[in-house]
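User: structure tokens for this one?
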Amino acid sequence: ACWCRMETLPEPTLCVLQVETLTMYRPSGT
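Assistant:
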């Protein structure tokens, strides 16, 4: 589930940071 969309978010960087945080919690990366 990707709730971060570059189209909606003015700063894709924030999205990336959130994704990386989720990856740390979930090694699966899904």
